[in-house]
Amino acid sequence: MKVITNIPQMQKISFALKKKGKKIGVVPTMGYLHEGHLSLIRIAQKYSDIVILTLFINPTQFAAHEDLNRYPQDIPGDLKKCKKAGVDYVFSPKISKMYPKNFETYVETTQISLPLCGGSRPGHFRGVTTIVSKLFLITQPTVAVLGKKDFQQLAVIKRMGADLNFPIRIIGAPIVRDKDGLALSSRNVYLTLEERKNAVGISSALFWIRNQIKSGETRIAILMSHLKNKLFSCGLRLDYAECLHSENLTPLTHYQKGKTLFAVACFVGKTRLIDNIVV
User: Fold this and answer.
1) What distance in Å separates the CA atoms of residue 33 and residue 37, rounded to the nearest whole number?
2) Which end of the chain, N or C, is more open, meaning fewer C-beta atoms within 10 Å of its C-beta?
3) Which residue from 113, 95, 111 is spatially nearest to 103, judged by alpha carbons?
4) For residue 55, what are the β-bridge partners?
5) Distance from C-alpha of 187 to C-alpha of 32, rounded to nearest angstrom
6) In a domain, 21, yes or no
7) How many CB atoms lie within 10 A of CB 229?
8) Same domain, yes or no, for 31 and 161?
9) Torsion angle of alpha carbons 34, 31, 108, 263, nearest 10°?
């Protein structure tokens, strides 16, 4: 495994690999890797000859009041996990190189980024699409693998890829959960023991929705009312709970089998967590 920090060097390696006919799979991350990230690596390996994992905490997707300066990091641990998982290259550039002085070019979707996290984190997805487009241009992937826990992020990147004609297959990977159902997240490390217990209420409420639909209850208004009540009863502070079409993220008032997204963002103490199900 090679660790690359230089942008031109990573580009040169990527172009050389493509010239040899190699399929490149990229796994974009902000580090502090957990089993969810490792599952992305395994999927990328199925669809590519070479896997590049990117380690970069992207400042442009954080607002001033958010956790950029305390976002968890463990680069030595991340590199150890990447090597054990069989990653070929880790690309970990410096912020000053990705965003040099006088940087002024951004990539932005205009509609699909508006609801959910786009509503509560203005400018977030402009930062996401900008950094991912840069990473795509640097690493030249055939395949990119992103997790479905960040469902809107996946949808935004797919939209960007289609609109800008990136010749990249973007794969959404299943959410990886702890034994008690909590979706794995690098931010889970912020939680106290008591908060960790309360956080399980997010997935429990979503699983309840899934079971209700399986039992024949498909009235969106009824389901959403119960969903919010269950979240409140767990001591969670709601950022949003919405029901949207899973393909275009437009509001749904009637259930559509296999295309109905229930998405939630809650504060557990000071920690903001997201989760979702598609049923």
Assistant:
1) 6
2) N
3) 95
4) 29
5) 9
6) yes
7) 10
8) yes
9) 20
State the alpha helices, DSSP H only, in the chain: 7-19, 35-47, 75-85, 95-98, 117-120, 124-139, 151-163, 193-214, 220-233
pLDDT tens by residue, the chain, 279 residues: 999 999 999 999 999 999 999 999 999 999 999 999 999 999 999 999 999 999 999 999 999 999 999 999 999 999 999 999 999 999 999 999 999 999 999 999 999 999 999 999 999 999 999 999 999 999 999 999 999 999 999 999 999 999 999 999 999 999 999 999 999 999 999 999 999 999 999 999 999 999 999 999 999 999 999 999 999 999 999 999 999 999 999 999 999 999 999 999 999 999 999 999 999
35: number of Cβ within 10 Å: 11
Shortest CA distance to 27 belongs to which of 94, 74, 87, 80? 87
Domain boundary among 173, 198, 226: 173
Q: In residues, how long is the chain?
A: 279
Domain contains 179: no
> Do 140 and 199 fall within a single domain?
no
Active-site residue identified among 37, 226, 245, 254: 37
In a domain, 178, yes or no: no
> Cα(140)–Cα(137) distance, rounded to whole angstroms?
5
Q: Which residues contact residue 64 at a Cβ distance below 8 angstroms, ignoring those fewer than 6 apart?
A: none
Q: Is 37 annotated as catalytic?
A: yes
Same domain, 164 and 212: no
Name the token pair of 232.
């409140």
- Looking up residue 113, the CATH number of its domain turns out to be 3.40.50.620
Q: What is the domain range of residue 125?
A: 2-173
Q: What is the CATH number of the domain that holds 219?
A: 3.30.1300.10
Task: Determine which helix (DSSP H) or strand (DSSP E) holds 263, and give its type and residue range.
Answer: strand 260-268
Residues in CB range of 163: below 8 A, 6 or more apart: 109
In a domain, 158, yes or no: yes
